[in-house]
Amino acid sequence: MRLFVAVYEERSFTAAAERESATQSGVSQHIRKIEDRFNVRLFTRGNGAVTPTPAGDSYYRHCIEVLRSNEAASRALMTFSAGLDGEITVGLMPTVTRCAMAPALARFMDRHPNVVVRVTEAYSALLTQQVRAGELDFAIVPAFAETVGLKSRLLVQTPEILVSSGHLDVPHLAPIRLSDLGAIKVILPSWQNTRRSRLETYFSSNGVKVDRLLELDAMLGTLDLVANTDWVTILPGVMMANDIVSRGFCVNPLADPPLETDLVLIEPARQPLSPAAHEFLDVLEEEAQRLNALWKA
After folding, report:
1. Chain-centre distance of CA 267, in angstroms?
2. Does this model's pTM top 0.85?
3. Torsions phi, psi of 170, nearest 5?
4. What share of the chain is helix, strand, coil (3-state, %, to 5)?
5. What are the residues facing 156 on neighbouring strands?
6. Which contacts (CB < 8 Å, 24+ apart) does range 33-42 have?
7. Do β-strands 85-92 and 138-142 pair in parallel, antiparallel, or remain unpaired?
8. In sequence order, which residues have a C-beta less than 8 Å from that of residue 244 and are 6 or more positions away?
9. Which residue segments constitute the domains of the chain, with CATH numbers given?
10. How confident is the model over 27-68, as pLDDT tens digits?
C-alpha cells in the first residue's frame, strides 16, 4: 500500500522508488501484483506519464485511510514502550488512599503505562490475611506484632491528629492536649483495626474523657459525620496532610504527650516483590514521606 500511494502521489515509479528507498523495478513489480490479483488496472502508462485510473483513485482513498490508521496504531503502541510491564495488586488502608495514593499512582502510570495496577482498600486485619495468602503483592498497615508468613519494614512514622469541624474553638494546626477538652464525642475504628487498642490506651493513660464513643469502619462516613456535627475523630497525619492548607477540617496534632503511628509495609515472606511492585512501592513511599513532612514544616 505504501508503494502504491507513493506512485499515486508522485505520478512516477522512479520518484516513488526514491521516496520509499526501493528500486524502480521493485515498485513496478508490487503494483503489478496488486493489479494481477484483482484483475484491474491501477495506472495507465505511456509516454513517460503515470496516470491513475478510476480504480486507482478509489484504491488510493482507501489506502490512505488504512495507512493513517496503521500509523496511529503504531504510535499508540509506542506510548507503552517505555518503562515496565506486568500486573500488580496492592492493599491500602484509607490512611494511605486519601492523600498519598492518587499522586503516586498518577506518577507511576506516567512512567510505566503498560503496568496494570489494582488497588484493594480495606482495614489492616483483612489486608494482612490477603498478603499472607499471596492475594496481594504488598500492603501498608499500622505496625503489629504478628509476622508469621510476612516480611515487614517501617514505611513512615506519622503523628496522630485530632480532626474536627472547628467547633472546639481551637486554632487550626495548634497542638492539642485531649484532656483539656472535657468530655468528647469521638469516632474510633473497630477493634479489628490495630490503631484502636493504641488509642484506647492513650485515652486511659492521659485522662481523656469520652462522653460518647461511636465505632465506625467507614472512613467516608466518618469524615462526613465529623464535617457536619460536633463529633471528632483521630486519624494519622499522612491521611490529613492536604487539610493543612485546604482547611477542609480543623486538624490538630495530639500533644502532651504526642502520639504517633508506625505504618509498615508487609509482603509475603516467601516471594520477592516484582520489579513493577517494587517501583510502585518506591513512588508511594516517597509520596507518603512528602505528606508526612508537612507536619514538621
Report:
1. 19
2. no
3. -115, 130
4. 45, 25, 30
5. 263
6. 34/4, 34/59, 42/4
7. parallel
8. 173, 251, 294, 295
9. 2-78 (1.10.10.10), 85-293 (3.40.190.290)
10. 999 999 999 999 999 999 877 788 999 999 999 999 999 988
